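Write out the 3D structure for:
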Amino acid sequence: MNGDSYEVRLFRPGDEERVLAFHNRAFAPARSMAHFEWRFLRNPAGPPQLALALDAERCVGIYASLPVRCIVRGERVLACVHTDCGVDPDLRRGLAGTRVIMAVERLHKVACVQGRALLEWGFPEPALQRVVIRHCGVGVLRDVHMLVHAADRLPAPPDDVDVALVAAVPSDVDALWWRVAPSLAATTVRDASYLDWRYARHPDHAHVMLTARSGGVLRGFAVLRDSGPDPSATAIMELIVPPDDGGAERALLARAGAEARARGREYVTAWVPLQLPAAYRWQRDYGFFVTSTPFQECYRSWSRDLHRRWLGANWYRSIGDIDFF
């Protein structure tokens, strides 16, 4: 398949160096080969999904996504988050760049999405967003707003919950996740294999993992990280707690505040989409406030039932669902 003078095809073993070189020309910050391998080759949900535009020497365009296992209305489905999509900086001024991105998007859609993924999402930069909305059937789902709280003013933890730092994802987190999952109409499957890949094995960022237990029973699990959406805040990447266990939730939030203070951070921040009941509850019960971000979540649905209004009201997200954090 060809677009202009470029070969357009799927990623093959041996393309790694050209793809990494493209990323480091087109985006910031620079990435390592270890990061490329972690992101695309170690994903437990499936193999790499990269459509490339190549000339004789280099990669000049990419449309890439990561397969993600999700639950939608109680059914396990495959979705994908778009990542690292763009064209070489030399092609961005003019129609050549648009033609390249449309060519790689068409191949990606046919080879990696249609008949496989039920949903797609991403957070494109404005220039790419304009192209994919106009030409590719992508829509804007919502603005991304964060919930923020002063790290030293979170409510005190209950006495009957023990919160501990852990070095690895605990083996019983699967049982916890599948207790939480029925309360969420649509979300990423946050089981042990996903959490281990997404956080414990991340090549660039150290994540703080917390368990909340009573009598040895796992009641909640959280993942924290600095250098997320706000450099002054510690980001709550994940908070996995059954909806009826306010004690475990409160204990993990209190510990998140303590960990933020220990790292010299003034705030903690989390993404809970504002239409979801949990976002109202966090504001009412804990005093979180809402702050805007420059990001918009875009989506494409391959089911008429999964339209913008339903997804906006039901699709649970965390900061971990944003590919560049």
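The domain at 2-137 is CATH 3.40.630.30 (Aminopeptidase).
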